[in-house]
């Protein structure tokens, strides 16, 4: 349309400054063209308005649906405040003042301070552990974000940076994650805290609360120093999906050296969800550095790799090939310049959503929610999804970092947000923060994308000191 108006004006220099509508009305046969053009404009404006109104209606309905949820779901969406008192600074001798810098006096400082008096608030002791095998009555099925979580043998679950596969064949959930144990150390003075690679832990469950240890399904390599899985390297964020065509379980993970310069993905395969997985190879996907990553299997069976790239300044997304063992040569840059990592992708009513974290090593930071009509983008950033706790809780993703979002079967719009509360002083003692995530209501950030289209739903992650799944309630 713009091109047309320019052409008309340039053929009639005397009319160059006049209003284009008048121009075309005075131009005989061009008059009908302009009527068509302006009718089209009018139609598009009406269509836009109609879509806005109907979308708002849908959202209003959505909100209503949300409000009319079963009371138990409403309970999960209740805003729970958290009041943590920061202990007053201890009196220090002049010698101590000289020796050590002043203690932190804000909540983040307390969280990062191994000797904080309120450390138990963030890392409750083993006495407080969730123990499904010994949990009588009242505490049954309750998640306590941040508490040690014991498996059916009474050992702390080791599945960090993990994800969950629901295996249709065995009707069982499998939780895969980094098995972190042993001493935490720094390979170099300036290197990140690390533990030696042990492998990928796998746990199975029917109820998402009682987890049986299925062992290390992909083990580290003890001897061969050139092997990707040598214990001196890095294996993070393993995720497993099932390929319906090949009947194989395929694991993708972040493979790196101790300095995080290899920046690759690794692929492993198994005939069974409980492994053992055969390690195939590592590569830089699409020729780019790749650090935090995840994979996502869409409803149509196409799976995607999403990874932080270009030194974590942007994410890349691209489909895997049919057997899920490699990427294709199709990929898109998304969230360019936003410096996000720890992607956790999910889908609701045809829209794709993603939670990411900022890039601050093992220290917690603010989560952001993103949405897209098409998985390949464009992706839009919607803002911080965290609700409740207190301001610092919300600015630190409840002192945790996203790893996976698990759809809750039978309850559309209801998900479990899975995150890691890293303990950089003892990585094996890092905790799990599982919280209810819902999609519904209007996003609270104005969006730049194409004249206000589309209006995404809000993604909300609700803080709860303790909560349980609706399915574990009687009467639901
Ligand atoms: C943040 C990432 O999300 C983690 O998976 C891990 O790579 C740490 N950085 C290492 O500092």
Automatic annotation (TrEMBL):
Domain of life according to the entry: Eukaryota
Keyword Ribonucleoprotein appears in the UniProt entry: no
Pfam families with a match to the protein in the record: Glyco_hydro_43 (PF04616)
GO terms under biological process: carbohydrate metabolic process
Entry's transmembrane regions: 35-53
Enzyme class (EC, first level): hydrolase
GO molecular function terms attached to this record: galactan 1,3-beta-galactosidase activity
Keywords: Glycosidase, Hydrolase, Membrane, Transmembrane, Transmembrane helix
Enzyme Commission code: 3.2.1.145
UniProt record similarity statement: Belongs to the glycosyl hydrolase 43 family.
Name this polypeptide is given: Galactan 1,3-beta-galactosidase
Organism, scientific name: Handroanthus impetiginosus
Higher taxonomy: Eukaryota, Viridiplantae, Streptophyta, Embryophyta, Tracheophyta
């Amino acid at each position: 349309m713009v091109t047309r108006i320019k052409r008309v004006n340039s053929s009639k220099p005397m009319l160059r400054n006049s209003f284009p509508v008048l121009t075309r009305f005075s131009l005989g046969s061009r008059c009908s063209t302009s009527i068509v053009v302006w009718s089209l404009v009018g139609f598009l404006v009406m269509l836009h308005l109609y879509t806005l109104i109907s979308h708002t209606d849908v959202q209003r309905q959505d909100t209503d649906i949300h409000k009319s949820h079963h009371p138990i779901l409403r309970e999960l969406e209740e805003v729970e405040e958290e009041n943590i008192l920061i202990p007053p600074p201890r009196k220090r001798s002049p010698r101590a003042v000289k020796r050590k810098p002043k203690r932190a006096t804000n909540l983040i400082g307390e969280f990062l301070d191994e000797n904080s008096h309120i450390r138990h608030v963030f890392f409750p002791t083993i006495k407080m552990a969730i123990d499904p095998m010994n949990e009588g009555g009242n505490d049954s099925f309750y998640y306590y974000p941040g508490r040690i979580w014991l498996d059916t043998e009474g050992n702390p679950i080791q599945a960090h940076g993990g994800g969950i596969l629901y295996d249709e064949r065995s009707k069982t959930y499998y939780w895969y994650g980094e098995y972190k144990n042993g001493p935490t150390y720094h390979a170099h003075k300036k290197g990140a805290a690390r533990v030696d690679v042990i492998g990928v832990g796998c746990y199975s469950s029917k109820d998402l609360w009682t987890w049986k240890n299925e062992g290390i399904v992909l083990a580290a390599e003890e001897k061969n120093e050139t092997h990707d899985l040598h214990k001196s390297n890095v294996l993070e964020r393993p995720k497993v999906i099932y390929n319906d065509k090949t009947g194989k379980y395929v694991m993708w993970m972040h493979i790196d050296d101790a300095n995080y310069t290899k920046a690759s993905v690794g692929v492993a395969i198994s005939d069974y969800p409980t492994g053992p997985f055969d390690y195939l190879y590592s590569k830089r996907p699409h020729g780019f550095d790749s650090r935090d990553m995840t994979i996502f299997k869409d409803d149509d069976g196409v799976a995607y790799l999403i990874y932080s790239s270009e030194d974590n300044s942007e994410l890349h997304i691209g489909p895997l090939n049919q057997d899920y063992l490699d990427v294709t040569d199709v990929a898109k840059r998304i969230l360019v310049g936003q410096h996000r990592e720890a992607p956790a992708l999910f889908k609701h009513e045809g829209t794709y959503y993603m939670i990411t974290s900022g890039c601050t090593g093992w220290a917690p930071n603010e989560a952001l929610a993103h949405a897209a009509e098409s998985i390949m983008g464009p992706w839009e950033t919607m803002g911080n999804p965290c609700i409740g706790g207190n301001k610092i809780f919300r600015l630190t993703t409840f002192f945790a970092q996203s790893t996976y979002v698990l759809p809750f079967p039978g309850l559309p719009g209801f998900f479990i947000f899975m995150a890691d509360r890293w303990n950089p002083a003892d990585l094996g003692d890092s905790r799990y923060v599982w919280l209810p995530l819902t999609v519904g209501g209007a996003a609270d950030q104005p969006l730049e994308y194409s004249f206000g289209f589309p209006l995404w739903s809000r993604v909300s992650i609700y803080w709860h000191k303790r909560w349980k799944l609706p399915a574990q309630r009687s009467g639901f």
